[in-house]
Amino acid sequence: MRRVWAIVRREFVERVRRKWFWISALLGPVFFALVFLLPVALASSGGSKRIAVVDGTTSDFGARVAATLDSGSVFAAVRVASGPRVVDSLVAEVGARRLDGILLLTDSVVATGAAEYRASNISSLRDVAELEGTLTSLVAQVRLERAGVDPRLLREARGLHLRTAKIAGSTMTGESSAQSFSLAYLMGLILYTVILVYGVNVKSSVLEEKTTRIVEVLLSSVRPFSLLAGKILGVGAVSLLQLAIWGVAGRALANWGAGLDGSGPLAIPHVSAATAAIFLAYFIGGFLLYSAMFAAVGALSSTEQEAQQAQQPIALVLVGSVLSMFALLNEPNSTLAVTLSLLPFSSPIAMPVRWAAGDLPPLELVASLALLVAGIVVVTWVASRIYRVGILMTGKRPTIRELVRWVKAV
Amino acid sequence: MTSPVLVVDRVSKRFAGHTAVDDLSLVVAPGVIQGLLGPNGAGKTTTIRMILDILLPDAGRVERFGSRASARHWAGRIGYLPEERGLYRRMRVLDVLVFLAEMKGVDRRAARERGRRWLERLGLAAWERRSVDDLSKGMQQKVQFISTVLHEPTLVILDEPFAGLDPVNAQALKDIVLELRSAGTTVLLSTHVMEQAEKLCDQVCIIAHGKKLVDGSLAEIKRTRGGRHVTLGFDGRAAGDAPAVLADRRLVRGLDDYGQYAEVELAPDADPQELLRGLVEAGVRLSRFELTEPSLHRIFMDLVSDGGTRHA
User: Fold this and answer.
1) Fewer beta carbons under 10 A from the terminal one: N or C of chain B?
2) Which of A1, A206, A221 to mutate to test the interface with B (most CBs of B within 10 A)?
């Protein structure tokens, strides 16, 4: 229908014309890169920590620990012989920030496995993991040596690097666990941001027509549902263009990044066609579902402030889906994960995240999509009825009881 | 008489707690300016919304152009200026006009061309590529008139068109309305400003509390509804010093005393000469004693303040 098409075009053209659209198109990838890479970058930044290994052992164990730690990238370790007041003076050094920490070793380390680490920051998992790893392996080595095991045999027996690979269906993909984690995380983040931003866009558009009363003129020419549909499709088209720009930019950035330093946890993982299709399907579904709700919010409100308040519950549901992402990634097949990926309100974020994190039973995917479509139909039906009445209302916000009446009205 | 453009047939609309429009009927002939008059809250806007199918009546029906088809079916032939004005603030002026014309089924290219012509005519040609936000309020109102008539409708519905207009724009709008009529367009105009209605309307329908009080041609209403009125001019009289004869219910039905002059509505069978004699005998010095046609304002006030009980 020509009029709906004109509404779609207006929503699209007016948005794409704005500077705001191009700024977010260009800055989007930068933003996601920051949100995504910053924690990783922060965790590995700060260079190596300066620590003193206070050696109270009677063997060469302390020297070996210091040498092993120093050879790694996490610590710069110096062996200090134990003596009276040594610890006190080192503690003073840590206090003066000339030293990051002290590792206290005695003979009991080898015997009982008890050592002590004092530092200005003991919350760094990386530091603790490095210390524990080094000590455990050296303690084991010394115990075995004392038991008479040939040191050469020990060197050969050591050394393990766990390589992870995701199995999808029966084929093994080239993705590492870090890569599928980061892909899932990134997808969840983008889905959340874009659905929220463009849902709010639909709300603002509805509100503008309501507050300016243009809606009366429009409704004398088109049905409320056509107006709503044209609006959602137009804004949706803008969001797809935004995603397309980001996709192309992301690809280019990934190629450029790969040229810089090969792979590793920072590399942007390969996105298969199936993953892209699922991402897109759930994006479109999620957008339709949420934008219909946001449209109803716009129709119910008389001012921007009111609308911002009224949209909180909807935004919260979205935020909840994002927060549950971490639980999903840890246990992609838990009851919680399955439930969230089936419920239409959380599935647009939960399902693509689960898909990217690991293998999925196809039946669950089909069920989730079917439920999402059903959810869209029901939500749109309810929202369009609220919209129809709400856009002509002025003054105070309706009560829940009134809303129910609007929905039931013929 | 040619077939009516618009038939409103015993239409009612209830909202939670009150009846906005109650069993209202109205027939609008082609090519006339039909006034829909009433105080604020009388149900004018609700009636218009039902005529436009923005609201559905609870009872009764509306026919447009002799057909039961929805108003949206006739959208291209109907122009509508709502009471509360507004345009897309950040759109360019010409783009708004083109979009609103497209909603009425006008082809983009034609809309663009006609939009330019209208902007030129109303002195806004230099603004066509500026955003609506850059325009003054008066200019925005002009743009909105243009959007109401750009698609060349045969029925134009104006809800309180003069509200908030400065005298220059009010004049411009009045000229457009009269021009529309001479081109054969039917205009339905709602207002509570009786002076405007009296100058423009051929037919008027006065409503209050959702009910029709009176309906017909302006001349006929004045003749039948106005009663007989006498305008008195006093020659140096202290305000508030009303002679007893004006309180005589056998002579005077209504009195609107302005101090230096007064409008008197005569009782049904009263003889104006008797009133004159009474006044002279009471020693009132008159500068004027004139049998007059009542103003629409007067009729309106009488009808509305009586709550519609009197005209029966």
Assistant:
1) C
2) A221
